[in-house]
């Protein structure tokens, strides 16, 4: 990250906020301030920021391994991909990302808890960079000892809710140790039919951060919501937002795009940011705009990765799968019977 931007904008940070370690991340015409330990963001825009240009994506989504001990039928990862990252190569890669100006890494896979020496890795990455460290897990390998060991060294743990991963027990553990976590919840038609009940259960258990994901894929049309179901989900979100007290966060996956009518948004719609705001790095060292793009471009050096971002960030490439907001109608259409038809 260019230090000149930090120096140039230091006078605009109000004194009470100086106790936090704000990091400046120039965007095109704006300046984002981010604090990794609190997760706070501040977006500045005005005459002083008009000349700024983005120099790096905000986040890298990194598949640290392709191994997983669950067998979810809807998993989007390419099961043939090899797991090429090793402790040292991954650490160096993330340190290079930090120097580039990336603010956050979000590790997934596969199951990142299966990465060798994961606890040590998180602690070393935290102490050797300014990155916020997040990871998504199925939760089956989390333990109290592990969570205590990484306390203070990560931004958020994202727990995926599946039918077979005993997530209620994992939530209880995360609450018990006061972990910073949220849940990722795939909203299929089946899940939509029990959304109120399950949402109440999550709140009862102590969950305070819920991300609602839509299915991305062209293989199983029945996992996508049809237009009527999307209206129902939008109504749930609007109603929940109105009822929720402070301290509970309800988030929507960027791939919903503008398909959920009337839901409150922070920044008023816009592009998902795939390929520009964030990049997806596979377990076999390929780079893609987001995790749902097929293929990807292999890279060896960090300079190759940087060049990929600079050359392609403006392309706004769609993932050729049903559910991508960059496709007309998200690559979906309704049949005469009201079911979902894929048209990617
Ligand atoms: S490119 Fe499509 S699938 Fe990927 S994050 Fe953006 S909207 Fe979602």
Strand segment count: 15
Annotated CATH architecture of the largest domain:
Alpha-Beta Barrel
Assembly status = single chain
**Rg from C-alpha positions?**
20 Å
What is the overall silhouette?
globular
Measured distance between first and last alpha carbons: 38 Å
Helix coverage percent of residues? 25-40%
What ligand species are in this complex? iron/sulfur cluster
CATH classification class of the largest domain: Alpha Beta
- In percent terms, what proportion of residues is strand? 15-25%
Examine the coordinates and then state which fold CATH places here, giving the name of the CATH topology of the largest domain.
TIM Barrel
Strand order of the largest sheet: 10-9-8-7-6-5-4-11-12-13
CATH superfamily of the largest domain: Aldolase class I
Structure description:
The protein is 27% helix and 19% strand. With 344 residues, the protein is of the alpha/beta class. It has a ten-stranded mixed beta sheet with strand order 10-9-8-7-6-5-4-11-12-13, with helices on one face. Strands 1-2-3 form a three-stranded antiparallel beta sheet, covered by helices on one side. The protein has nine helices and 15 strands. It has two domains: 3-49; 59-342, Alpha-Beta Barrel (TIM Barrel). A hairpin with a 2-residue loop joins strand 1 and strand 2. Residues 1-13 have low confidence and may be disordered. Helix 2 packs parallel to helix 3. Iron/sulfur cluster binds at residues 216, 254-255, 272, 274, 289-290, 292, 318-319, 324-326.
């Amino acid at each position: 990250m260019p230090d000149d931007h930090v120096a140039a904008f230091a006078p605009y940070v109000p004194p009470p906020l100086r106790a936090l370690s704000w990091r400046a991340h120039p965007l095109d015409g704006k300046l984002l301030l981010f604090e990794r330990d609190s997760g706070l963001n501040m977006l500045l825009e005005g005459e002083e920021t008009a000349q700024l240009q983005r120099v790096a994506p905000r986040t890298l989504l990194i598949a640290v391994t392709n191994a997983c001990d669950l067998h979810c039928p809807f998993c989007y990862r390419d099961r043939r991909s090899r797991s090429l990252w090793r402790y040292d190569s991954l650490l160096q890669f993330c340190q290079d990302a930090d120097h580039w100006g990336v603010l956050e890494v979000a590790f997934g896979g596969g199951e990142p808890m299966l990465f060798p020496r994961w606890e040590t890795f998180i602690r070393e990455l935290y102490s050797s960079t300014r990155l916020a460290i997040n990871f998504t897990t199925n939760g089956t390998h989390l333990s109290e000892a592990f969570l205590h060991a990484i306390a203070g060294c990560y931004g958020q743990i994202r727990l995926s809710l599946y039918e077979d991963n005993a997530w209620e027990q994992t939530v209880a553990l995360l609450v018990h140790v006061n972990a910073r976590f949220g849940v990722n919840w795939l909203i299929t038609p089946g899940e939509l039919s029990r959304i109120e009940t399950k949402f109440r259960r999550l709140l009862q258990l102590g969950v305070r951060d819920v991300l609602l994901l839509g299915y991305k894929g062209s293989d199983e049309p029945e996992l996508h919501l049809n237009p009527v179901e999307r209206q129902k989900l939008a109504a749930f979100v609007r109603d929940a937002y109105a009822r929720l007290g402070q301290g509970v966060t309800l988030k929507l996956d960027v791939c919903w795009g503008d398909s959920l009518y009337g839901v409150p948004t922070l920044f008023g719609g816009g592009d998902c940011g795939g390929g520009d705001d964030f990049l997806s790095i596979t377990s076999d060292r390929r780079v893609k705009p987001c995790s749902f793009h097929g293929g990807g471009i292999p890279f060896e050096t960090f300079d190759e990765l940087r060049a990929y971002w600079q050359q392609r960030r403006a392309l706004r490439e769609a993932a050729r799968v049903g559910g991508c907001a960059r496709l007309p109608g998200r690559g979906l259409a309704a049949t005469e019977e009201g079911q979902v038809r894929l048209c990617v």
